[in-house]
Amino acid sequence: MSERVWVKDPIAVLAEGAERGVVVENGRIAELVGKGAEPAHPVHRIFDAGRHVVTPGLVNTHHHFFQTLTRAHPSAINKELFPWLQALYPIWARHVKPEAFRLATRLALTELLMSGCTCASDHQYLFPGGIEDAMDVQTEEAARVGLRMTLTRGSMDLSQKDGGLPPDSIVQDTDTILADSERILGRYHDASDGAMLQVALAPCAPFTVTKRLMVESAALAERFQCRLHTHLGETIDENDYCMAHYGYRPVDYLEEVGWLNDKVWLAHGIHFNDEEVGRLGRHGVGVCHCPTSNMVLASGQCRTKELEAAGSPVGLGVDGSASNDNSNLIEGVRHALMINRLTYDAASVTHLDAFRWATEGSARCLGRSDIGAIAVGKQADMAFFTLDELRFSGAGDPLAALVLCGAHAADRVMVAGAWKVENGLPTGIDVAALRAEHGRVAKAFLEAL
């Protein structure tokens, strides 16, 4: 007999009809227990959630794990995207080596988990010599930490000598990229319900990849029925680059290479006009909103409300940990609320909108219907926050308090019905040792200063 666990009587839960909690069985949500009710069938264990506010596990749809090694880097702070990249590309090219990459991945995954994230997508586009097996490393580390993951096989094949932005040493040959993409898809892509690993293909951006790579990645994705991801519309500089090199704006470029469809989600998606927003929505193209990074780099403000109204799924991402500069998704929920209220108004953008982007919207961007909500039949991925800190004293609405009062760490996190964070600490990860090891290798990234 499978064990049924009643997560009983939380302070609040982000789900309809679950006032008395949730019953978990076989890694799924088996039952919602409403106000004044008891579970319909016997349970074997009870977890007393009386100290917790429960949300669906947060879903991160855009990140760059390796960038944890260059947070607040003196060469890159106080810059916008293109000069920021030009400052960091050479540093990454010299110093992102196997040990550093593995520790960067482990640290980013651990940070995400501790912030309430249960599924992550990392746009891993950097492949200097020595880390050609980056996607295999990420697979191992995701299993070690316990998160679900979309392995997002990024790529760059357009370097400075060909008119692109990155230095020659960190791009790969197109055929090498396509061959490894096919290998990763064949080895790791699991389209089944409840999958711990899925794969997406992600040529980096219009200024770092060739049209051939975009077109052939789309063909490969069609063959394997996986999703596609890229940066688009992040800055005015990117729009200008597309006009100068291709003769049209980024959304036209997307259509030209066969990417204007509902298997695609975009990072940032800021600088779209009304007509482009409408086209993206009609075709179901998702957009990952990255509020923290957008503010740090002064890139602009994503048109979340118009995109959703047009039909585009809107998700949430922390973006790279050198432009955020952390990997904290619950903090990103707060930033999404704040910047969108500034963009629109205080009444029409609520904490529930920000939570929706980080859960259901993000799940839709990744093409997953099995996560992103607390509902019967969904995977039992949940984040448990307490209101014990001084910042929450006096708070009236518990769910709003997580956002408005600035929650930054989950007390417990459940993935597929198993505890992966308990009492604020990840199970099986020595946080102090990880901090020391990661800090040691990160020192190399400052050696030229």
Describe the structure.
This protein has helices at 81-95, 98-114, 134-145, 174-188, 211-224, 236-246, 250-256, 274-282, 291-296, 304-310, 329-343, 351-365, 398-404, 431-442; strands at residues 4-8, 12-13, 21-25, 28-33, 45-48, 52-56, 58-60, 117-124, 148-155, 197-203, 227-232, 264-268, 286-289, 314-316, 382-386, 412-415, 418-422, 425-426. With 449 residues, the chain is an alpha/beta fold. The protein folds into 2 domains: 4-56 and 379-426, Urease, subunit C, domain 1 (Roll); 58-365, TIM Barrel, CATH 3.20.20.140. Strands 7-8-9-10-11-12-13-14 form an 8-stranded parallel beta sheet. Strands 2-6-15-16-17-18 form a 6-stranded mixed beta sheet, covered by helices on one side. Helix 2 runs parallel beside helix 3 (134-145). The longest helix is centred in the N-terminal third of the chain and has 17 residues, at 98-114. The N and C termini lie far apart (61 Å). The model has no long low-confidence stretch (mean pLDDT 96). Its EC number is 3.5.4.32. InterPro entries: Amidohydro-rel (IPR006680), Metal-dep_hydrolase_composite (IPR011059), Metal_Hydrolase (IPR032466), MTA/SAH_deaminase (IPR050287). This is 8-oxoguanine deaminase. Residues 53-403 form the Amidohydrolase-related domain. GO terms for molecular function: 8-oxoguanine deaminase activity; deaminase activity; metal ion binding.
